[in-house]
Amino acid sequence: MQQDHLVADVGGTNIRIAIAYKSELNHIETYKCAEFSSLEAAINHYIEQNQLTVNKACICIAGAVNDEEIKMTNMDWRFSAHSIEKRCAINKVHLINDYHAIAMSLPHLSSTQLITMSKRKGQAHAPKMVCGPGTGLGIAQLVPIGEQYHCISGEGGHIAFAPTTEQQMHVLAYLFGQHKRVSIERLLSGQGIVNIYQALAAQASQHPQPFDAKDITDAFINQADTLCVESVTLFLEILAQFLGDLVLMNGAFGGVYISGGIMPRIIEHVDLEQFNQCYTHKGRFKEYVDQAPLYLITEPQPGLIGAAAYLYQSID
């Protein structure tokens, strides 16, 4: 009997499940998490629906992953690798963080799954970084070791915001009035765009509209509101300089990749020349950062691809 390898990407709202053969995905299904009482129930539904016998699985989770029981933040799901193995009759289950999975996908993404944002070529056997402003700010590093890759992940989105201009200092002062500590995620996320908008409105002595991130980015795309345009422009400036900081910290000459839901929506309206100038604006180390190419991930399922890559690397 054929035994399949299963991969899954578990978010706060949806769960995506597929069968993997190396980097090829088959039978991709998306379910609403709320429709199932547990993660195991969702996986068993998929297995029964596709009449599978699963040997190994890799499941990436939007949240912290450890060797103990995992509790999802936005729903009443508790599970562990052992509970999934037992209740879903799977021989071996790997649980990894979602940005661990996205990092593992990077060597497997082709030019059709990316937008090249710079003219730099980068180095083939060098570290890569992924940074994803979305609901939060995920960050991970991928390091080549021989013929395999090792992911170094953490909570880089929660390092302190370091302003470099007077305008950015004003935004920091505004946010410092609301938070005991201002992390970079307070600016580089959906809520971060709203925070920037409100800070600039206060600076201009304007009453801010009750906009969310989509309202502000839509107004930026359509050039419909000056304050929204200024807010997204500043968001892009801060993002670019932060990506350059990642290169300084990690020597990511294999490339810096942007993921998350914000940038794909606005990329056609981004001034890439200005973005790259902010990215490499590092004084004496401009040429150092200028060695690292920039990419935007457009592939809709990098988590599943990365989970498959992790699974097959563990098999090898």
Automatic annotation (TrEMBL):
Enzyme Commission number, as recorded: 2.7.1.2
Lineage: Bacteria, Pseudomonadati, Pseudomonadota, Gammaproteobacteria, Alteromonadales
Family assignment from sequence similarity: Belongs to the bacterial glucokinase family.
Residues given in the record as ATP binding sites: 8-13
Keywords tagged on the record: ATP-binding, Cytoplasm, Glycolysis, Kinase, Nucleotide-binding, Transferase
EC class (word): transferase
Catalytic reaction(s) noted: D-glucose + ATP = D-glucose 6-phosphate + ADP + H(+)
Protein name stated in the entry: Glucokinase
InterPro entries from the UniProt entry: ATPase_NBD (IPR043129), Bacterial_glucokinase (IPR050201), Glucokinase (IPR003836)
Gene Ontology MF annotations: glucokinase activity
Subcellular location: Cytoplasm
Origin species: Shewanella surugensis
Main location group: cytoplasm
Top-rank taxon, per record: Bacteria
